[in-house]
Amino acid sequence: MNAYVGTPTSRVDGRAKVTGAAKYAGEFAADLLLHGFVVAATIPRGRIARLDTSKALKVKGVVDVLTHAHRPPLAEQDEAWKDEVAPEQGSPFRPLYDNSVKFNGQPIALVVAEDWETAKFAATRIRVEYEEEAFATDLESERTKAAKVDQPHKPRGDASAALTRAAVHHEADYVIPSEHHNPMELYATTAVWDGNGKLTVYDKTQGVQNVQKFLCSVFGRKPNEIRVISPYVGGAFGSGLRPQHQVVLATLGALALKRSVRVVLTRHQMYGLGYRPMTIEHVALGANRDGTLEAVMHEAIAVTSRFENFSRNDTGWGEQLYKSPNSRLSHKLVHLDVATPCDMRAPGAASGVCALECAMDELAVALKLDPIELRLRCYSDRDQSEDLPYTSKQLRACYARGAEAFGWSRRAPGPRSMRDGKELVGWGMATGVWEALQMPVAVRIVLTANGHAEVSCAASDIGTGTYTIVAQVAADALGLPIENISVRLADSSLPQAPVEGGSWMAASSAHAVLGAAEEIRQELVRRVKAMPASPLGGVDAPDIILVDGTVTKAGDRSRAVSIADIMRHSKLERIEKEKLNQFEEEKSYARNTHSAVFAEVKVDEQLGVIRVTRVVSAVAAGRILNTKTGRSQVMGSVVWGIGMALHEETLMDHRFGRIMNANIAEYHIPVNADVHDIDVIFVDEPDDRINRLGVKGLGEIGIVGVPAAIANAVYHATGKRIRRFPITLDKLL
Ligand code: MOS
């Protein structure tokens, strides 16, 4: 049954991707295609007093310039602009809606021309006069204006009193800067006008049906008038969860001009979209001398826009990891004149757990305890917020396996006690935790008489390997070689799927495939039993399985009947089944993935240059559907974690409310030379409670804990505790 599931199967879309056959949103062609170029606001707050497009319109090849004063109608109600992942509170941003400017980099016009260069040039001919208003973009100077948001965590006990009483206590602020998404693929949309008022919209997105519903409500269209397709995505990890403004602008252009329009944002313009919000994470831990905790307090203060309350779970993770009779958590927001933040890989956890795990390291130093030992002494077998057991939690095994692979027992505990030539060596570790969510997904399988199956679903593959795992699960469930499976994804006309995010798509899509395959099996069983002198006549239906292109009795291949024979006999060309898989989640368990991350850094004592020379990440995430794509997934996460620790930071000039490093020359991300040895270990974690296959998902867990493990290693190397990320060399000197 498991010829493919659990194996290192190569990506089924790998060849298409490396040969350029895979097409991305900005690559689809259309007759008489027009190109849009975005004109962005250059002030953070105010009104557009005058927007003079006359010179741009005179440029040869320019077809039109769309502005708030000159555009087709857009929905007026906030509700119409709410997408699947919009913050609960607030008024989503509406591009070209009115003359107000809400953030620097906001789109205020779209120049549409026969070619991109002309549109780009004509954009420089647009003159804008603003009525500027007073603005604020600095979280730290506006910190006192932070307002509390509702979070599900109830306080337990009396954390302040327990903290005062505690024998040892550690309290500090950890500052995580805003970080902007920099996927390889630029945000792009090609809106293809079919001549009859219908649009096919190729968009870079993590959810085609989300974008389709959004466009229909924003433009007052019927579902059959807009189809959204996104077969390949060149990286997203949160940036494509919400429909971004380029898809609104391309659609607006196509509807206004009744022609196909492509809009591709420049790298610079991508900084006018969402980002991981800057947070000041205040953590206070109170402990007994034996390393058990008495109090955990965690308050996050995060940036959001003036118009939406974006917040995620930064502070709740201690409830999952560390036993403490008292805890108090809060999340506060400061409204600033900036774009709304958005999800970025492990939103909330990547920042909050970074602070928590640095604080735990500091506590271990204060207690003179090994950092793993401290974590084991307060290890929680239950999720304390709801007092629930876990469906599975092999975090202890992560610590043990990771420590062994890393060689942790050879660590000299004191800071500045390990050296390699003129470099200081530091070893640090941290814990990671994420959720194991599942969402309703529907899958359609069409089985044809030649023993080929097409499996389709509206889910996206943002590069994480959905095509491959869907093919693996289908091949096993249908008893076919994987070469006989073709997978179609990310077309809004296909069966229902949510946005691909939150690490829920592997478990959700795999079980939807199982559901549809079971319907196929039942149909084949009915058909085979109806054949005259059927070798499976007397066999109970549940004992009949699909294997090697045949239908047979489990354990008795002599009774096998080929799918081709059954279909020929039934005079069928194809069997088509579609099934929606709903998850009935028992409320009596917590569902999480865990990891233990170990990092080695080498720091040049004179120059402060930091190299992350080794990372071992031991991950417990249930059954791993594909050990090859799964390993890549975690390695990518670790690389991003290196970026979070040492490189990534959106720098704003608060005098102008403008991002200063809106390009990948000055917004630093890890490059090849920054990435050394990364070892990924998947810890065995059987879980028959979470779902049939025991799958939990790997999309986000790999980044959580990585920045803290590196920061802790930097402390171990240098004796310097840097609490303001990223840890750049100037902070060490
Ligand atoms: Mo993920 S941040 O849900 O793409």
Unreliable sequence segments: none
The level 1 CATH classification of the largest domain is Alpha Beta
SS content category: alpha+beta
Widest β-sheet, arrangement of strands = 3-5-1-13-10-11-12
Write up what this structure looks like.
The chain is α+β, with helices and mostly antiparallel strands and 733 residues long. The protein folds into three domains: 19-134 and 183-266, Aldehyde oxidase/xanthine dehydrogenase, a/b hammerhead (Aldehyde Oxidoreductase, domain 3), CATH 3.90.1170.50; 282-437 and 591-732, Aldehyde oxidase/xanthine dehydrogenase, molybdopterin binding domain (Aldehyde Oxidoreductase, domain 4), CATH 3.30.365; 439-581, 2-Layer Sandwich (Aldehyde Oxidoreductase, domain 4), CATH 3.30.365.10. The chain has 16 helices and 33 strands. The chain has a seven-stranded mixed sheet. Strands 7-17-16-15-8 form a five-stranded mixed sheet, sandwiched between helices. A hairpin with a 2-residue loop joins strand 26 (550-553) and strand 27. Helix 5 packs across helix 6, helix 8 runs parallel beside helix 15 (706-718) and helix 14 crosses helix 15. The longest helix is centred in the C-terminal third of the chain and has 25 residues, at 505-529. The radius of gyration is 27 Å and the shape is globular. The model has no long low-confidence stretch (mean pLDDT 97). Dioxothiomolybdenum(VI) ion (MOS) binds next to loops. The site of dioxothiomolybdenum(VI) ion has 10 residues, from loops.
